[in-house]
Amino acid sequence: MPKKGGKHADMEKNGPAQCKRAKVEAACSPSVMSFENPDSLFGSLISPIKQEVFFREYWEQKPLLVQRNDPLLAAYYQSLFQLSDLKELCSRGLYYGRDLNICRCVNGKKKVLNKEGKVNYMQLKKDFDQKKATIQFHQPQRFKEELWKIQEKLECYFGSLVGSNVYMTPQGSQGLPPHYDDVEVFILQLEGEKHWRLYKPTVHLAREYNVESEDRIGNPTHEFILKPGDLLYFPRGTIHQADTPPGISYSTHVTISTYQNNSWGDFLLDAIPGLVFDTAKEDVALRTSIPRKLLMQVDTADSTKKLSSLLRRLADRLENTRELRSSDMKKDFIMNRLPPCLGCDSNALTPGGKFPKIDSKIRLQFRDHAIITVEPDQENSDEICREMVYVYHSLKNRRETHMMGTEDDTANEEGTPQAHGLRFPLSYLDALKQIWHSSTVNVKELNLASDEEKENLALSLWTECLIEVI
Fold first, then answer.
1. What residue stretches are annotated with the JmjC domain (predicted)?
2. What is the CA angle 450-456-469, rounded to 5?
3. Which of 63, 231, 361, 414 has a Cα at 20 to 30 A from 258?
4. At what angle do helices 145-158 and 71-80 cross, to 10 degrees?
5. How big is the CA angle at 322 (ends 380 and 260), to the nearest 5 degrees?
6. Tens of pLDDT along 173-209?
7. CATH topology classification for 6-258
8. Which fold would CATH assign to domain 265-321?
9. What's the CATH code, domain 328-469?
């Protein structure tokens, strides 16, 4: 384990496993984060790397290390979360397990040192100072507005949930054993320094978290020190471990993660049932019975040829209609993502301004926070399956429960978070698409049969703060 000073510098010059291709020295000082839009935010996060370069050469392929010597950016990173913030946060009523974990890597295994119930700051400090335990703080965006701003913009950018954890590790200690994750990881070094080792994946683009033993992972492919203001990215499945070197009082970094269960495989699992249902309405081949006793057979190899044929028919339909509906994934994302971070302008989430009328011109707002889906009518108790258009949005989501499971007090009796949005007849779909695809649209030009329907649609969207009258 390298020590502070010269050995840190020598590690990347003379060490057996250098971070060569992945390492990028910042040629000029990058500015602090740009919140103008999701693209500019992500661009400032990975600066000076260009986004097209990042996705062509690094995303899901290999690690990227951006080392910066920028005091301004280092100070900004430190403001996101500091070890000294814990005392005040503990006074808000944190709980072990839910809000934070205390852990340490012992003999290649994670040892959890959590107590029961509410976190006591003095006990937490004692475990950190005396037991050299790492503090893993869960989802700090619930408490830190700047992280809320960053993660909300990243959720708009990726179209995927973005979570975070803060890790605070004392000197000469390591919190977690070598492991890989099922998420794309962006690490921002906030305080102190952290010694990292990355290893070749045993499972490329892994779908689950797993701990790996030292004797199985071989030598590091990359080894380096992160300092305040530095950024590290690596794909899911990348085996990694990190420690705070001796001589560094402690290290604080935030891990921002995304793309959990967000692969083509996940999308197909979500979309194929709807495709089969729609195709079976028109294609009698999918409505013919399966062979007698098929469900009783141990070996169904004889049916694979027929299944292959039916799958080709589904592919043909998809090619011809170019319509593939995601149902649960889209809804899950919009129901569980962060609401917009508006700061002092929270009144934007209260209906106001001009009232929409038939001669009004309207504009969609919070475009990244709303989706349109076509689903079976959830309020129809008849046997006839009728489809309706649903508009779901995240404007009323609560940051306090973001990425925390089903603790939201808006959950239903089964513990599932309630969706916020509107329900319309299928005949409203084209008009909704007009609004979504246009920068502005006149209410009277909406593709609906009557002026009453046009006004009702505009009023419904305005009431949910999804449109404004201009």
1. 139-271
2. 110
3. 414
4. 100
5. 75
6. 999 999 999 999 999 999 999 999 999 999 999 999 9
7. Jelly Rolls (2.60.120)
8. Arc Repressor Mutant, subunit A (1.10.10)
9. 3.90.930.40
